[in-house]
Amino acid sequence: MNKICSAQEAVSIVKDGDVVSSVGVIGWFTPDDVLKALGERFEQTAAPRDLTFYFPCGTGDSVEIRGMDHVAREGMMKRVVSGSYINPTNPKTGARPELMRLIQNNLVEAYSWPIGASMHWLREVARRSPGYLTRIGLGTYIDPEQSGGKMTTLAKEELVKRVEFAGEEMLFYPTWKLDVAILRATTSDDLGNLSFEEDPMTSSTLALAMAVKASGGKVIAQVKRIVPRGSRKAITVTVPAALVDKIVVAPDQMMVTEVPFDATFLGVEQKPLDQFKKLPMTPGKIIARRASREVRQHELTIFGFGASSDVPLVMSEEGLLTDDNIDDYWFTTEHGSFGGVVMNGWQFSCNANPRAVIDGVSQFDLIDGGLCEFAALAFAQFDASGTVNVSRFGKANPGAGGFIDIAQNAKRLIFTGTFTTGGLDLTYSEDHGLSIKREGKVKKFVQQAEHVTYRLQDGTGRGQQALLITERAVFSVSPEGLVLEEIAPGIDLEKDILGQMEFAPVKIREPLVIMDAELFRDIPRG
């Protein structure tokens, strides 16, 4: 049987009402040609209709690698369940992704699951178990006592249940079948054996293929090239041909947004640290500089998206991370890349100069087991009850990604972000310190967060240590609430700190520490 076919022929197997799943992590690893062909089939024929889409992670950047935006079409997408949603504005048009339009206008049943659950749930589908049982996420937005992960009012079905098991409250994700999987790899032979020589992650690929085949479904794989059978070592083949039904060749598939191919992400070439880009002087860089002072050697450290992902690049720029000591810093992200330098922006998720890579499902075993002792994450809102929100705020609906799993299981946490947002403009001078030229329109320290991504007070009750780091102040988190520890030189406590918060810290440290002036200068500390 010849499995090699066009993308159009491959997607012809999708029927009305099917559940379609796809790999992809932002611009990384996205089977864009196949998703595009599926969207175009609907555009041309009005079929297939009423599909459910399952994305373990946000798939595509919604700009040049459109990913799940290809299939975000009214009539085609009935329901979507995703571990995260891509929410950038297009730099050319200023428009939000089409999937965000469907969600914001309540035109689709949308659910947001933590990525740990979206990965681990696949195992339960693959072995035909009743569902996935976990403590992670209790009391957060995924808990049915909050919203059960629903992102639109059209989403009425309870996909997550709160149950008692062995005398303990837990969350239970019942399994349901998956009809079609869309995978991506570097290489296949004509049989469908998949290997990943030029992809620096495998994410949920194997778990997704197994879950779909256990459901009686079909698996499509997009690859860069076909090689003769028997031409690779069997140990390099991650997905066996028995799990693959269709093969689509896409020789021009991108490694990631703006990067056709870069061997430094595979670890086979090493990029000297002095060749990494230097970050412009922004509030985010100030925050990353201060956060870098909390990083320790020989402590497995996991970085999230946003200002926190700038920390390794800032450390490299300022001589704290060097070619000589880089292996003493154990850096990772939620997608399984270990060692080297965590990247930011569109390249976030994989590390440059990595030493090892594991699959995404195993990575969340590691995270949920508490092996990432230190975590640096972003925050969009922090409220008076100790709730951190990154999953839904204003017009943004990004979901939690790996945030809940990471935050709940780390021993030390830092949350990074500007004090306000929406037009914030700062200046710094040696004479006057940090000055707020224009305050952000949106306050981030709010009386009540719009969404509950993590309840930090629950963690401090378990002995978790946490800091909130902004460009003008640093807070520690006690079981009673926020303690103001540090303030930037030149900042007025009443006007610039307390006046921009909807609630007061429970304590202001005496004496209040003045943040190091070198954090604000547009020169490397080194």
What is the CATH topology descriptor of the largest domain?
A: Glutaconate Coenzyme A-transferase
The DSSP helix count reads 11
Main sheet strand line-up: 1-15-12-9-2-3-4-5
Structural domains: how many: 2
Any idea of the CATH class of the largest domain? Answer: Alpha Beta
Oligomer: single chain
CATH architecture annotation of the largest domain: 3-Layer(aba) Sandwich
| Distance between the amino and carboxyl termini | 62 Å
What structural category arises from helix and sheet content?
alpha/beta
Fraction in helix? 10-25%
Cα Rg:
23 Å
Biggest β-sheet: count, sense, barrel?
Answer: 8 strands, parallel
Beta-strand content bin: 25-35%
Q: Got a strand count?
A: 35
Average predicted confidence as pLDDT: 96
For CATH, the homologous superfamily of the largest domain is named as Glutaconate Coenzyme A-transferase
Q: What is the molecular shape? A: globular
Low-confidence stretches: none
Concise synopsis of the structure shown:
The protein is α/β, with parallel strands linked by helices and 526 residues long.
In words, what does this structure look like?
The model has no long low-confidence stretch (mean pLDDT 96). This protein has two domains: 4-249, Glutaconate Coenzyme A-transferase (3-Layer(aba) Sandwich); 263-519, Glutaconate Coenzyme A-transferase. Strands 1-15-12-9-2-3-4-5 form an eight-stranded parallel β-sheet, sandwiched between helices. The protein starts with a strand and ends in a 12-residue tail after the last strand. The protein contains eleven helices and 35 strands. Helix 6 (283-292) packs across helix 7. A hairpin with a 2-residue loop joins strand 33 and strand 34 (481-487). The protein is globular. By secondary structure, it is of the alpha/beta class.
